[in-house]
Specification:
alpha/beta; Rossmann fold; 10 helices
């Protein structure tokens, strides 16, 4: 699957890369530019030590990291510069899949620079310990940079446990069981009591890789995917579900609601609503080409309509999160993938031309946290999570794609 692996020359990353790489013959490449962020005088300090010794400077690091200045340096800006340098070397291996093993901050910088986002996006695209992100790079015209698409962000690791069972002659055996960790579990980034969960559903607007074409009854698959999403979210005490008025999405919202009410019997005050601005099924029907180059198949009027709708839907969803009567709010939006791609663009303050930077599969879950409240910048914790879909889960990478994994 991978042509080579890149890592920083530090023991923890080295060991992780070796475990992943296994018995492959290709050598592991080390690059000092992949080292973690350098905080100079802050380096090695505990949080309480940083607060007591540096006061205002520590506060600046917490609240405005991209402009944080210490010892004559801007650490986040330097990190972004190193990440751009790394891409020049990594992408020299044209047409091959590459695994990059590095630490939290530098992986954030790698994702940000690949997408053309500046250092102000530090801490906005979360990278958790052992989380996996995948970027797809596709060739463009000769001499131009490749097309880049964030296939998925911060996929949580598998939970490995031993399940005790009894075999023949009552001999006790303990097979290893691997289960995906929920993308909603606390695993990185700042804690937040306001959260938005985007559930992408619908064959008419699906941009995943052939899943519907391979299924003879697309509607039945929608129902199956909806049930799996509902089971994934069964432990989430959500406050409201906002869905597109399209049939597939309203049915999926109903399934999620039924499972939620069964999980929180007698205690759930779940509110169900619909928003026309979340509907993109008619828009998607005009696009016949699927996959990561989907954006190129949409004419400017369609993109503008999609973008304008998201401009209404995004503040509406934020208003649902803003109710002061709810200390903890979890709003679930059920809509076609195209609608949620546009919402990601709104969350990150992008333009409609940048919507091609994202990929979502039908049945996927995307999580956005608001640690400073809905009026402030949302933090994208995970995108395009599909491990809960079982046999319908889209693999993190395919050998046929020119992708880079982080």
């Amino acid at each position: 699957m991978y042509g080579e692996v890149w890592m920083i020359p530090l023991n923890r990353s080295k060991r992780t890369a070796e475990v992943i790489w296994g018995s492959r013959k290709e050598k592991i490449i080390t690059d000092y530019d992949l080292r973690e962020i350098d905080l100079y005088s802050f380096q090695g300090l505990l949080k309480h030590e940083g607060k007591s010794k540096f006061g205002d400077a520590y506060s600046h690091w917490q609240t405005d990291a991209s402009n944080f200045y210490i010892d004559g340096h801007y650490p986040v800006r330097e990190l972004w510069s190193r990440a751009r340098s790394c891409w020049k070397k990594v992408l020299a291996y044209d047409g091959r899949s590459v695994l990059v093993v590095a630490h939290n901050a530098v992986n954030q910088a790698l994702i940000g620079t690949a997408l053309g986002l500046g250092p102000e996006y530090f801490r906005v695209l979360v990278q958790s310990n052992c989380g996996v992100s995948a970027l797809d790079f596709s060739p463009s015209s000769e001499g131009s940079p490749p097309y880049v698409c964030l296939n998925r962000l911060n996929q949580p690791p598998l939970l490995v446990c031993a399940e005790s069972v009894y075999g023949d002659n009552n001999n006790k055996v303990a097979p290893v069981v691997q289960t995906p960790k929920s993308p909603l579990a606390e695993s990185g980034g700042r804690k937040a009591n306001k959260r938005m969960v985007l559930v992408s559903i619908g064959s008419g607007s699906c941009i995943n890789e052939g899943i519907y074409e391979s299924h003879p009854e697309g509607k039945n698959l929608d129902a199956e995917l909806s049930q799996k999403v509902a089971e994934l979210l069964s432990d989430v005490n959500m406050t409201s579900i906002i869905s597109s008025p399209g049939a597939v999405c309203t049915e999926a919202a109903a399934v999620i609601s039924n499972v939620q009410k069964a999980s929180y019997s007698g205690t759930s005050n779940l509110v169900m609503k619909q928003s026309q601005d979340l509907d993109s099924e008619n828009i998607a029907e005009q696009s016949i080409k699927l996959g990561q180059k989907w954006f190129a198949t949409l004419n400017s009027k369609i993109v503008t309509k999609l973008w304008d709708q998201s401009g209404q839907a995004w503040p509406y969803l934020l208003s649902e999160l803003s109710y002061e009567s709810q200390l903890e709010n979890v709003v679930v939006a059920v809509a076609p993938p195209l609608s949620h791609i546009a919402l990601l663009g709104r969350c990150l303050n992008l333009t409609k031309e940048q919507l091609s930077l994202f990929h979502l599969d039908s049945g996927s879950v995307t999580v956005i946290d608001f640690p400073d409240g809905p009026a402030k910048q949302g933090v994208v914790k995970c995108t395009n999570y599909t491990a809960h879909l079982g046999k319908w889960a889209a693999p993190i990478s395919k050998s046929s794609l020119h992708n880079v994994e982080l």
